[in-house]
Amino acid sequence: MNRTFSVAPLATLFPSTEERSVMFGHWSPSPQSQTRSASDALLQSIDLAVAAEELGADGAYFRVHHFARQLGSPFPLLAACGARTKRIELGTAVIDMRYENPLYMAEDAGAADLIAGGRLQLGISRGSPEQVIDGFRYFGYVPPEGMTDADMARRHTEVFLEVLLGKGFAKPSPRPMFPNPSGLLRVEPYSEGLRERIWWGAGSNATAVWGAKLEMNLQSSPGAPVTASHSTPSTLKARHSTQRAASDQNGAIHILTDGNQIEISCFVDCNRTKAQQDSAAAQSPDYQ
Q1: What is the average pLDDT score of the chain?
Q2: Domain range summary for the chain, segments of one domain joined by +
Q3: Which pTM value belongs to this model?
Q4: Interacting residues of 16 by C-beta distance below 8 A, sequence separation 6+
Q5: Collapsing DSSP states into helix, strand and coil, what is residue 253?
Q6: 98 against 270, higher pLDDT
Q7: pLDDT by residue (tens digit) across 3-35?
Q8: DSSP-based three-state secondary structure for 67
Q9: Where on the phi/psi map is residue 151: left (φ > 0), alpha (ψ -120 to 50), or beta?
Q10: What is the three-state SS of 88-115?
Q11: CB under 8 Å to 101, separation ≥6 — which residues?
Q12: What is the pLDDT of residue 143?
């Protein structure tokens, strides 16, 4: 059983004797909070990843939300966690690709993966309902005419995946600052194998099929189920040994289905009932 430690805003664990709680992934100026600043949230998240590894967890995953008192910039955090840990997988659930420059993201992801020794497992997607209206526009990304924001996210994803292959595509300058290798240049730093560790957060069979065509792993959640049936794409292949894992109440784990070779990461809020999770997911699905 692969046990994954999910750093999610609503997960409240390890209550203290003073009946205060550690709130993972976000901060609040409330006097009752032990995480009152962005610095607190980031540093505590690093410590939690270290503790998760010491406890024997297989993965520490971070949610990503913009315009919120949460973890909006994952790669510095992933790199810091990678430098402090040795074995545990480090990932996201999910990065909203509407906000991303795919080439700059490839540089950041490559650097963080190299620092972590090839342990990144990046969950990406169209994203979830936002704190602001069309927040991606403030980041400088506007869907071209005839394209939706979801289309734009998928286009960013396609470019990102292509760049992660490490093939040269940029024509070198005849007067470079530093000597260039021969041929077209690629984005650096390049981390071999990272392309095989990208997960698409699918909220329907249709988007799972799209992810399958790009040979991504499948990432889902209890609030946005993708059915594991013969209608789901068998080309979404598990990257680890094919086995089954049962869900528990201690956090999130990987679930692998034998028949269809689909790997699903379920992120479970330990403090909510199934009915509460279903209700919250219906109002604010993370996966599209």
Answers
A1: 77
A2: 3-283
A3: 0.75
A4: 34
A5: strand
A6: 98
A7: 554 444 333 333 333 333 334 678 888 888 888
A8: coil
A9: alpha
A10: CEEEEEEEEHHHCCHHHHHHHHHHHHHH
A11: 156
A12: 96
Quickly list DSSP for 205-247.
Answer: HHHHHHHHHTT-EEE-BTTB----STTS-TTS--SS-------
**Inter-axis angle of helices 74-84 and 38-54, to 10 degrees?**
40
Q: H or E segment at 149? A: helix 149-163
Is the pLDDT confidence value at 126 over 50?
yes
The predicted model gives 33-40 an average pLDDT of 90
Residue type, position 142, single letter: V
Inter-residue contact 259 to 215 (CB < 8 Å) = no
Contact of 200 with 218, CB cutoff 8 Å: yes
CA distance 248 to 116: 28
The CA–CA distances, whole Å, from 276 to 199, 257, 273 equal 26, 26, 5
Show the tokens assigned to 9.
């805003």
- Class level of CATH domain 3-283: alpha beta
Q: Calculate the CA 246 to chain-centre distance.
A: 22
